[in-house]
Protein backbone atom coordinates (compact mmCIF):
# COMPACT_ATOMS: atom_id res chain seq x y z
CA UNK A 1 0.00 0.00 0.00
CA UNK A 2 1.06 3.59 -0.61
CA UNK A 3 2.45 4.94 2.66
CA UNK A 4 0.88 8.35 3.14
CA UNK A 5 -0.52 10.29 6.05
CA UNK A 6 -3.27 11.79 3.90
CA UNK A 7 -5.65 9.28 2.32
CA UNK A 8 -8.65 10.49 0.29
CA UNK A 9 -11.84 10.52 2.31
CA UNK A 10 -13.99 9.67 -0.72
CA UNK A 11 -12.61 8.79 -4.15
CA UNK A 12 -14.96 8.74 -7.16
CA UNK A 13 -13.58 7.00 -10.25
CA UNK A 14 -15.29 7.30 -13.65
CA UNK A 15 -14.68 4.95 -16.56
CA UNK A 16 -15.21 1.36 -17.59
CA UNK A 17 -13.51 -1.88 -18.50
CA UNK A 18 -9.83 -2.61 -17.89
CA UNK A 19 -8.84 1.03 -17.46
CA UNK A 20 -11.24 1.60 -14.56
CA UNK A 21 -10.12 -1.73 -13.10
CA UNK A 22 -6.55 -0.42 -12.73
CA UNK A 23 -7.73 2.89 -11.25
CA UNK A 24 -9.81 1.09 -8.64
CA UNK A 25 -6.81 -1.01 -7.67
CA UNK A 26 -4.84 2.25 -7.34
CA UNK A 27 -7.57 3.69 -5.09
CA UNK A 28 -7.13 0.73 -2.77
CA UNK A 29 -3.35 1.21 -2.84
CA UNK A 30 -4.03 4.74 -1.59
CA UNK A 31 -6.15 3.47 1.33
CA UNK A 32 -9.07 5.63 0.18
CA UNK A 33 -11.66 5.47 2.96
CA UNK A 34 -14.59 5.33 0.54
CA UNK A 35 -14.51 4.41 -3.16
CA UNK A 36 -17.30 4.98 -5.69
CA UNK A 37 -16.88 3.43 -9.13
CA UNK A 38 -19.09 5.34 -11.60
CA UNK A 39 -19.39 3.10 -14.62
CA UNK A 40 -20.41 3.54 -18.25
CA UNK A 41 -23.31 1.35 -19.42
CA UNK A 42 -23.05 1.13 -23.22
CA UNK A 43 -21.48 -2.33 -23.70
CA UNK A 44 -23.28 -4.39 -26.35
CA UNK A 45 -20.85 -7.24 -27.00
CA UNK A 46 -20.24 -10.71 -25.62
CA UNK A 47 -21.97 -11.87 -22.47
CA UNK A 48 -23.08 -8.34 -21.56
CA UNK A 49 -24.65 -7.77 -24.95
CA UNK A 50 -26.54 -11.05 -24.81
CA UNK A 51 -27.97 -10.31 -21.36
CA UNK A 52 -28.78 -6.75 -22.38
CA UNK A 53 -30.79 -7.92 -25.38
CA UNK A 54 -32.44 -10.93 -23.75
CA UNK A 55 -33.38 -9.29 -20.43
CA UNK A 56 -33.58 -5.60 -21.41
CA UNK A 57 -31.20 -4.60 -18.62
CA UNK A 58 -28.17 -2.40 -18.15
CA UNK A 59 -25.21 -4.41 -19.53
CA UNK A 60 -23.45 -5.86 -16.50
CA UNK A 61 -19.94 -6.45 -17.88
CA UNK A 62 -18.21 -3.18 -16.96
CA UNK A 63 -20.08 -3.17 -13.65
CA UNK A 64 -18.80 -6.69 -12.93
CA UNK A 65 -15.24 -5.64 -13.81
CA UNK A 66 -15.44 -2.79 -11.30
CA UNK A 67 -16.79 -5.12 -8.61
CA UNK A 68 -13.98 -7.58 -9.32
CA UNK A 69 -11.39 -4.82 -8.89
CA UNK A 70 -12.89 -3.90 -5.53
CA UNK A 71 -13.41 -7.52 -4.45
CA UNK A 72 -10.03 -8.96 -3.68
CA UNK A 73 -11.19 -11.33 -0.94
CA UNK A 74 -9.33 -14.60 -0.54
CA UNK A 75 -11.31 -15.44 2.59
CA UNK A 76 -13.55 -18.49 2.35
CA UNK A 77 -16.52 -16.35 3.41
CA UNK A 78 -16.08 -13.94 0.49
CA UNK A 79 -16.89 -14.32 -3.20
CA UNK A 80 -13.53 -13.80 -4.87
CA UNK A 81 -12.75 -11.63 -7.86
CA UNK A 82 -11.66 -14.70 -9.82
CA UNK A 83 -15.12 -16.25 -9.37
CA UNK A 84 -16.84 -13.08 -10.60
CA UNK A 85 -14.55 -13.02 -13.64
CA UNK A 86 -14.81 -16.73 -14.49
CA UNK A 87 -16.35 -17.48 -17.91
CA UNK A 88 -18.14 -20.67 -18.82
CA UNK A 89 -16.50 -22.72 -21.52
CA UNK A 90 -18.00 -25.15 -23.99
CA UNK A 91 -20.54 -24.49 -26.71
CA UNK A 92 -23.84 -24.52 -24.83
CA UNK A 93 -26.14 -21.72 -23.82
CA UNK A 94 -23.87 -20.60 -20.97
CA UNK A 95 -20.71 -20.56 -23.08
CA UNK A 96 -18.93 -17.21 -22.84
CA UNK A 97 -21.02 -15.88 -19.97
CA UNK A 98 -19.16 -14.53 -16.95
CA UNK A 99 -20.36 -15.81 -13.57
CA UNK A 100 -20.54 -12.25 -12.24
CA UNK A 101 -22.69 -11.12 -15.16
CA UNK A 102 -25.23 -13.88 -14.52
CA UNK A 103 -25.24 -13.20 -10.79
CA UNK A 104 -25.84 -9.48 -11.30
CA UNK A 105 -28.53 -10.10 -13.92
CA UNK A 106 -30.31 -12.69 -11.75
CA UNK A 107 -30.30 -10.50 -8.67
CA UNK A 108 -31.47 -7.49 -10.69
CA UNK A 109 -34.45 -9.52 -11.93
CA UNK A 110 -35.18 -10.89 -8.46
CA UNK A 111 -34.97 -7.52 -6.69
CA UNK A 112 -36.24 -5.29 -9.49
CA UNK A 113 -33.21 -3.03 -9.04
CA UNK A 114 -29.80 -3.08 -10.71
CA UNK A 115 -28.33 -1.03 -7.85
CA UNK A 116 -29.68 -3.48 -5.27
CA UNK A 117 -28.10 -6.31 -7.27
CA UNK A 118 -24.73 -4.55 -7.43
CA UNK A 119 -24.81 -3.76 -3.73
CA UNK A 120 -25.63 -7.37 -2.88
CA UNK A 121 -22.80 -8.74 -5.03
CA UNK A 122 -20.53 -6.15 -3.43
CA UNK A 123 -21.57 -7.42 -0.02
CA UNK A 124 -21.03 -11.07 -0.98
CA UNK A 125 -17.59 -10.30 -2.43
CA UNK A 126 -16.58 -7.98 0.41
CA UNK A 127 -16.03 -5.16 -2.09
CA UNK A 128 -13.98 -2.23 -0.81
CA UNK A 129 -16.30 0.31 -2.39
CA UNK A 130 -19.57 0.78 -4.26
CA UNK A 131 -20.28 0.35 -7.97
CA UNK A 132 -22.76 2.81 -9.50
CA UNK A 133 -24.04 2.93 -13.11
CA UNK A 134 -23.66 6.46 -14.49
CA UNK A 135 -27.29 6.29 -15.68
CA UNK A 136 -30.09 3.87 -14.88
CA UNK A 137 -30.73 2.70 -18.43
CA UNK A 138 -28.66 1.03 -21.15
CA UNK A 139 -27.03 3.45 -23.58
CA UNK A 140 -26.08 3.09 -27.24
CA UNK A 141 -22.98 4.79 -28.58
CA UNK A 142 -23.14 6.44 -31.99
CA UNK A 143 -19.99 7.69 -33.69
CA UNK A 144 -19.29 9.96 -36.63
CA UNK A 145 -16.62 8.10 -38.57
CA UNK A 146 -14.62 9.16 -41.60
CA UNK A 147 -12.40 7.05 -43.84
CA UNK A 148 -14.99 4.38 -44.59
CA UNK A 149 -15.55 5.68 -48.14
CA UNK A 150 -13.28 6.56 -51.03
CA UNK A 151 -13.80 10.20 -50.13
CA UNK A 152 -12.07 10.62 -46.74
CA UNK A 153 -14.30 13.61 -45.92
CA UNK A 154 -17.52 11.58 -45.98
CA UNK A 155 -18.90 10.90 -42.50
CA UNK A 156 -20.74 7.71 -41.66
CA UNK A 157 -22.65 6.90 -38.48
CA UNK A 158 -21.45 3.78 -36.70
CA UNK A 159 -23.67 2.47 -33.92
CA UNK A 160 -22.83 0.26 -30.96
CA UNK A 161 -19.90 -0.02 -28.57
CA UNK A 162 -18.27 -2.96 -30.31
CA UNK A 163 -18.68 -1.43 -33.78
CA UNK A 164 -17.18 1.89 -32.64
CA UNK A 165 -14.29 0.21 -30.82
CA UNK A 166 -13.35 -1.86 -33.87
CA UNK A 167 -14.10 0.51 -36.76
CA UNK A 168 -11.38 0.71 -39.42
CA UNK A 169 -12.32 4.37 -39.92
CA UNK A 170 -11.44 7.49 -37.94
CA UNK A 171 -13.76 8.37 -35.06
CA UNK A 172 -14.39 12.12 -34.99
CA UNK A 173 -17.15 12.43 -32.43
CA UNK A 174 -19.48 10.27 -30.37
CA UNK A 175 -22.91 10.74 -28.88
CA UNK A 176 -25.25 8.51 -26.94
CA UNK A 177 -28.82 7.39 -27.38
CA UNK A 178 -31.03 8.36 -25.71
CA UNK A 179 -29.43 11.75 -26.21
CA UNK A 180 -29.93 13.30 -22.76
CA UNK A 181 -30.48 10.53 -20.23
CA UNK A 182 -30.87 11.68 -16.62
CA UNK A 183 -27.73 10.98 -14.65
CA UNK A 184 -28.00 8.49 -11.82
CA UNK A 185 -28.63 10.54 -8.67
CA UNK A 186 -26.27 8.26 -6.75
CA UNK A 187 -23.48 9.08 -9.23
CA UNK A 188 -24.07 12.81 -8.82
CA UNK A 189 -24.14 12.40 -5.04
CA UNK A 190 -20.82 10.54 -5.10
CA UNK A 191 -19.21 13.26 -7.22
CA UNK A 192 -20.50 15.96 -4.88
CA UNK A 193 -19.15 14.16 -1.81
CA UNK A 194 -15.78 13.14 -3.26
CA UNK A 195 -12.51 14.84 -2.44
CA UNK A 196 -10.69 13.09 -5.30
CA UNK A 197 -12.24 12.39 -8.71
CA UNK A 198 -10.54 10.44 -11.50
CA UNK A 199 -11.55 10.09 -15.16
CA UNK A 200 -9.85 7.42 -17.26
CA UNK A 201 -7.84 5.63 -18.38
CA UNK A 202 -9.82 3.41 -20.74
CA UNK A 203 -11.20 3.17 -24.25
CA UNK A 204 -11.51 6.88 -24.95
CA UNK A 205 -14.68 6.94 -27.05
CA UNK A 206 -16.50 4.00 -25.48
CA UNK A 207 -15.55 4.07 -21.77
CA UNK A 208 -14.36 7.59 -20.93
CA UNK A 209 -16.12 10.15 -23.14
CA UNK A 210 -19.64 8.65 -22.71
CA UNK A 211 -19.60 10.11 -19.19
CA UNK A 212 -18.89 13.54 -20.65
CA UNK A 213 -21.89 13.69 -22.99
CA UNK A 214 -24.18 13.64 -19.95
CA UNK A 215 -24.40 17.34 -18.98
CA UNK A 216 -25.23 16.76 -15.32
CA UNK A 217 -22.11 14.62 -14.91
CA UNK A 218 -19.87 17.28 -16.48
CA UNK A 219 -21.43 19.95 -14.26
CA UNK A 220 -20.96 17.79 -11.17
CA UNK A 221 -17.28 17.18 -11.95
CA UNK A 222 -16.61 20.84 -12.75
CA UNK A 223 -18.20 22.25 -9.59
CA UNK A 224 -17.01 19.51 -7.24
CA UNK A 225 -14.95 20.53 -4.23
CA UNK A 226 -12.43 17.84 -5.08
CA UNK A 227 -9.11 17.29 -6.77
CA UNK A 228 -10.07 16.27 -10.34
CA UNK A 229 -7.58 14.17 -12.28
CA UNK A 230 -7.70 12.79 -15.83
CA UNK A 231 -5.50 9.72 -16.30
CA UNK A 232 -4.46 9.63 -19.95
CA UNK A 233 -4.09 6.36 -21.84
CA UNK A 234 -0.60 5.00 -22.35
CA UNK A 235 -1.06 4.79 -26.12
CA UNK A 236 -3.62 5.06 -28.89
CA UNK A 237 -5.87 2.03 -29.30
CA UNK A 238 -6.30 0.16 -32.59
CA UNK A 239 -9.71 1.10 -33.92
CA UNK A 240 -11.27 4.02 -32.13
CA UNK A 241 -8.15 6.14 -31.42
CA UNK A 242 -5.71 4.78 -34.00
CA UNK A 243 -3.09 7.42 -34.74
CA UNK A 244 -4.18 9.75 -31.91
CA UNK A 245 -1.50 11.71 -30.11
CA UNK A 246 -1.73 12.35 -26.37
CA UNK A 247 -2.59 15.94 -27.20
CA UNK A 248 -5.52 14.85 -29.37
CA UNK A 249 -6.89 12.71 -26.55
CA UNK A 250 -7.09 15.90 -24.46
CA UNK A 251 -8.69 17.87 -27.30
CA UNK A 252 -11.38 15.19 -27.57
CA UNK A 253 -12.36 15.79 -23.95
CA UNK A 254 -12.83 19.49 -24.60
CA UNK A 255 -14.64 18.89 -27.87
CA UNK A 256 -17.23 16.69 -26.21
CA UNK A 257 -17.48 18.62 -22.94
CA UNK A 258 -16.40 22.26 -23.38
CA UNK A 259 -17.59 23.06 -19.84
CA UNK A 260 -15.36 20.43 -18.23
CA UNK A 261 -12.88 21.67 -15.63
CA UNK A 262 -10.15 19.47 -14.14
CA UNK A 263 -6.99 20.08 -12.13
CA UNK A 264 -4.41 17.62 -13.45
CA UNK A 265 -3.83 15.35 -16.42
CA UNK A 266 -1.49 12.44 -15.67
CA UNK A 267 0.67 11.44 -18.65
CA UNK A 268 3.11 8.54 -18.60
CA UNK A 269 6.64 9.80 -19.22
CA UNK A 270 7.76 6.54 -20.83
CA UNK A 271 6.79 8.10 -24.18
CA UNK A 272 9.75 10.47 -23.83
CA UNK A 273 8.07 13.57 -25.22
CA UNK A 274 10.21 16.24 -26.81
CA UNK A 275 10.22 19.70 -25.27
CA UNK A 276 7.89 20.87 -28.04
CA UNK A 277 5.48 17.99 -27.50
CA UNK A 278 5.40 18.68 -23.77
CA UNK A 279 4.63 22.32 -24.46
CA UNK A 280 1.74 21.40 -26.79
CA UNK A 281 0.33 18.98 -24.20
CA UNK A 282 0.47 21.63 -21.48
CA UNK A 283 -1.31 24.18 -23.70
CA UNK A 284 -4.01 21.63 -24.53
CA UNK A 285 -4.49 20.91 -20.82
CA UNK A 286 -4.88 24.61 -20.04
CA UNK A 287 -8.14 24.65 -22.02
CA UNK A 288 -9.55 22.40 -19.29
CA UNK A 289 -7.91 24.49 -16.56
CA UNK A 290 -5.48 21.66 -15.91
CA UNK A 291 -1.78 21.13 -15.30
CA UNK A 292 0.03 18.16 -16.87
CA UNK A 293 1.80 15.76 -14.52
CA UNK A 294 4.40 13.65 -16.33
CA UNK A 295 5.14 10.52 -14.31
CA UNK A 296 6.08 6.85 -14.52
CA UNK A 297 2.72 5.08 -14.20
CA UNK A 298 3.05 2.03 -16.47
CA UNK A 299 3.91 -1.58 -15.70
CA UNK A 300 7.33 -2.54 -17.05
CA UNK A 301 9.18 -5.69 -18.02
CA UNK A 302 12.57 -6.40 -16.50
CA UNK A 303 14.23 -4.73 -19.48
CA UNK A 304 12.25 -1.53 -18.81
CA UNK A 305 9.85 -1.76 -21.75
CA UNK A 306 6.22 -1.03 -20.98
CA UNK A 307 3.57 -3.76 -20.75
CA UNK A 308 0.95 -1.31 -22.00
CA UNK A 309 -1.11 -1.13 -18.80
CA UNK A 310 -1.09 1.19 -15.82
CA UNK A 311 0.63 0.00 -12.68
CA UNK A 312 -1.81 0.49 -9.76
CA UNK A 313 0.97 1.04 -7.21
CA UNK A 314 2.70 3.66 -9.35
CA UNK A 315 -0.59 5.36 -10.24
CA UNK A 316 -1.57 5.35 -6.59
CA UNK A 317 1.71 7.03 -5.66
CA UNK A 318 1.23 9.77 -8.27
CA UNK A 319 -2.38 10.42 -7.27
CA UNK A 320 -1.32 10.53 -3.63
CA UNK A 321 1.40 13.09 -4.39
CA UNK A 322 -1.12 15.27 -6.22
CA UNK A 323 -3.63 14.90 -3.40
CA UNK A 324 -0.99 15.84 -0.81
CA UNK A 325 -0.27 19.09 -2.68
CA UNK A 326 -3.66 20.46 -1.70
CA UNK A 327 -3.78 23.08 1.02
Automatic annotation (TrEMBL):
<comment type="similarity">
    <text>Belongs to the gluconeogenesis factor family.</text>
</comment>
<dbReference type="GO" id="GO:0005737">
    <property type="term" value="C:cytoplasm"/>
</dbReference>
<dbReference type="InterPro" id="IPR002882">
    <property type="entry name" value="CofD"/>
</dbReference>
<protein>
    <recommendedName>
        <fullName>Putative gluconeogenesis factor</fullName>
    </recommendedName>
</protein>
<keyword id="KW-0963">Cytoplasm</keyword>
<dbReference type="InterPro" id="IPR038136">
    <property type="entry name" value="CofD-like_dom_sf"/>
</dbReference>
<comment type="function">
    <text>Required for morphogenesis under gluconeogenic growth conditions.</text>
</comment>
<dbReference type="GO" id="GO:0043743">
    <property type="term" value="F:LPPG:FO 2-phospho-L-lactate transferase activity"/>
</dbReference>
<dbReference type="InterPro" id="IPR010119">
    <property type="entry name" value="Gluconeogen_factor"/>
</dbReference>
<dbReference type="Pfam" id="PF01933">
    <property type="entry name" value="CofD"/>
</dbReference>
<dbReference type="GO" id="GO:0008360">
    <property type="term" value="P:regulation of cell shape"/>
</dbReference>
Amino acid sequence: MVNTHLAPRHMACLGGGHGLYQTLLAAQEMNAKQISAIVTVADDGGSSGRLRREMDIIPPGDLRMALAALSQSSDETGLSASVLQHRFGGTGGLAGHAVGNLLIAGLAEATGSMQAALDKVGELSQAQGRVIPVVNEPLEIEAEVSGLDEDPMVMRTVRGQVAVATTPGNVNRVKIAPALPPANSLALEALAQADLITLGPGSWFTSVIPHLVIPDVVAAISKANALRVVVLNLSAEPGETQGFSSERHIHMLYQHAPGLEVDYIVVDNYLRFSAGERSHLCRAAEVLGAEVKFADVSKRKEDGTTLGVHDPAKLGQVLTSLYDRQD
